[in-house]
Write a sequence for this structure.
């Protein structure tokens, strides 16, 4: 993977994280978010756990 591809991947991950954060803060549950983003439920739950720990 080139440096440019790594940067693009990181940017996509950050965008996804920000969207998940926004939906979670609006009260949507993990299963809805996982379905909307076509992500595994486990991945969304891991992200939400990270968000919860970063807000404390």
């Amino acid at each position: 993977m080139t440096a440019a591809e790594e940067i693009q991947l990181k940017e996509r991950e950050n965008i996804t994280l920000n969207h998940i954060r926004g939906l979670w803060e609006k009260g949507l549950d993990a299963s809805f978010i996982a379905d909307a983003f076509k992500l595994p439920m486990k991945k969304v739950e891991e992200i939400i756990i990270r968000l919860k720990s970063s807000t404390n």
Q: What stands out?
A: The chain has a mean pLDDT of 92.
